[in-house]
Design goal:
Elements (H helix, E strand, L loop, with lengths): L2 H27 L15 H16 L7 H10 L8 H13 L3 E5 L7 H5 L3 E5 L1 H14 L10 H16 L7 H26 L3 H7 L4 H32 L2 H16 L10 H20 L7 H28 L5 H13 L3 H12 L52 H28 L1 E3 L8 H16 L4 E3 L4 E6 L6 E6 L2 E6 L2 E6 L4
Antiparallel strand pairs: 1-2, 3-8, 4-5, 5-8, 6-7
Helix pairs in contact: 2-3, 2-6, 3-4, 7-8, 7-10, 8-11, 10-13, 11-12
Length: about 525
């Protein structure tokens, strides 16, 4: 190994160790407080914020170091502080320096007054943390709602970048890095702007606007805007997915190698990382980009989710617009239309045609209340509602006229209704007793031996079969003192029971009935 190779090996080892130390120190910072943010909630927050905003504006003008006199003059020129002195400004600067918002250095210039000679003269500069904090605050001051936009041109631009990467076998110095930055900026802009814009459509303010008449004015424009974005997603999203999946992964790796090589040529005093670590970062960013358009085994691509969210927003706006239009139509007189419809019904001679016209005109009636269950005359699921017995419900008056105080209602005589109900109950009980005596007299029978049955006989028969099948012993006892046992057919034979309203196919069970006395 030559002396040059030995020096390079030592340099590589030192960089790797420094990088490991930097990573460990970065993770340790996650658990420590940030003293640079103390000035945002301190007692004299107004003075501190004005001082640092002055430093930030001068920093933007490439003027980094300021004297206390310059800071005091700049703050007082805004006219936002009363009774503020140069001595207070000097103490505030020292406090901000203790909180690591400012760094100071001694000003070696010649003193012009006795006060300057007796007082230590310093110049101050903002720290990187404070610059980022002030930049964040400046952005927060300009935020109005979510903002964002839907730009299908960004998708077209990304597709052009990907095709350029696929078609470029070799990269000139700096070319790959510039393309990488353009690709990442466009991707970030597409993702963030689309998310912010769709989120703005879900806010309470947006929903309140959708309920007003003004929403109808720009409803078509907004819907057209969203539909164009959906069309762009469908057109360019599929091409991006196909290009990323069909291209050889080695092509993307060559591009990433060129990007890392370009980054290594740029000297940086802020951090020292190895080529391997820089490559790992770029691979991770590239995998996020690819997954956003292609998805993976467990999840679909984010393009599909974005398209679905946009379509849901379109459907939501159309629903609100329809509701506003229906509200205006609610009070319109439809006397002429109803008269025409009534004449149409009157001209029909066939009731079936009238039923069809009623179905096309009114559709299903809006249900307001459910009251009990109507009496079914048949168990057929295909029975028409016109063949059912009408269910009569008495509706109470909703009149606002109040009854006179002290007015009483007469007691109604319900003896006749009670007598009719009693006679109906006894008649039904007699029919049931007759069926039971008939089958108990038979003792045992198979399903195939039974002749045409009534609906009441079917009710008892199916009830007994169901209870016996639910019992392990296939045996039950009824409240009337009957013991019923069911025997399943061994050869799988089946029988058909004929009823008044149809035929029932079931296994050829054998049923045994006998009366038992209570023990």
């Amino acid at each position: 190994m030559t002396e040059i190779d030995y020096s390079r090996e030592i340099e590589t080892i030192v960089l790797q160790r420094m990088s490991a130390v930097n990573r460990r120190q970065t993770r340790e910072l996650w658990t420590k407080p940030v003293p640079e943010t103390k000035y945002l909630n301190a007692e004299n927050v107004a003075r501190y914020r004005l001082i640092l905003r002055l430093f930030y504006e001068n920093h933007s003008k490439l003027k980094y170091w300021l004297k206390p006199e310059e800071v005091y003059a700049g703050v007082m020129s805004w006219g936002l502080l009363d009774g503020y002195s140069l001595e207070q400004c000097q103490r505030d600067l020292e406090t901000l320096a203790e909180w690591k918002n400012l760094t100071s250095r001694h000003d070696g210039g010649r003193a012009t007054t006795i006060e300057e000679y007796l007082r230590k003269r310093f110049r101050y500069q903002m720290t990187p943390y404070t610059i980022e904090i002030e930049r964040m605050l400046e952005n927060l001051e300009n935020i109005q709602g979510y903002g964002g936009s839907l730009e299908p041109t960004l998708l077209e631009r990304l597709l052009g970048y990907i095709k350029r990467v696929r078609e470029t076998p070799e990269w000139a110095d700096g070319e790959a890095l510039q393309l990488w930055r353009d690709l990442q900026n466009s991707f970030r802009q597409l993702h963030e702007n689309a998310s912010d814009y769709l989120a703005s459509l879900q806010t309470g303010k947006a929903e309140e606007l959708m309920l007003t008449e003004q929403f109808l004015v720009f409803k078509d424009t907004l819907t057209h805007y969203l539909r164009n974005f959906v069309i762009g997603l469908q057109r360019y999203g599929g091409q991006l997915e196909a290009t990323l999946q069909e291209t050889d992964p080695e092509v993307w790796q060559v591009f990433l190698n060129a990007v890392v090589t370009d980054e290594a040529r740029m000297p940086s005093f802020e951090e020292s990382i190895t080529v391997e670590e820089r490559m790992d970062r770029r691979r991770e960013e590239w995998s996020i980009f690819v997954q956003w358009f292609t998805g993976n085994v467990n999840e679909r691509s984010d393009v599909i989710f974005l398209e679905r969210a946009t379509k849901d927003s379109i459907a939501k706006m159309l629903k609100y617009a329809l509701a506003i239009q229906e509200k205006y139509k609610w009070g319109i007189s439809r006397k002429r239309e109803l008269d025409y419809l009534g004449q149409w019904f009157l001209s029909l001679e066939d009731v079936e045609d009238a039923h069809r016209l009623g179905a096309y005109t009114f559709g299903l009636y809006r249900t307001r209340h459910f009251q009990g269950e109507g009496e079914r005359t048949s168990d057929s699921a295909d029975l028409s509602m016109w063949d059912e017995i009408p269910v009569i419900r008495e509706l109470k008056s909703r009149s606002r006229i109040q009854r006179k105080t002290g007015e009483t209602e007469a007691i109604r005589d319900r003896k006749e209704q009670q007598q009719k109900a009693r006679q109906a109950f006894l008649a039904g009980k007699a029919s049931e007793d007759e069926i039971l005596r008939k089958w108990v007299g038979m003792g045992e029978f198979s399903m195939s031996e039974l002749e045409r049955l009534t609906l009441l006989e079917r009710k008892f028969l199916l009830l007994w079969i169901g209870r016996c099948m639910a019992s392990r012993s296939r045996k039950i006892r009824t409240p009337d003192g009957l013991e019923i046992r069911l025997l399943e057919p061994k050869n799988g034979a089946r029988a058909k029971l004929v009823f008044e309203d149809g035929v029932l196919d079931l296994p050829d069970f054998r049923m045994f009935l006998k009366e038992v006395t209570a023990q």
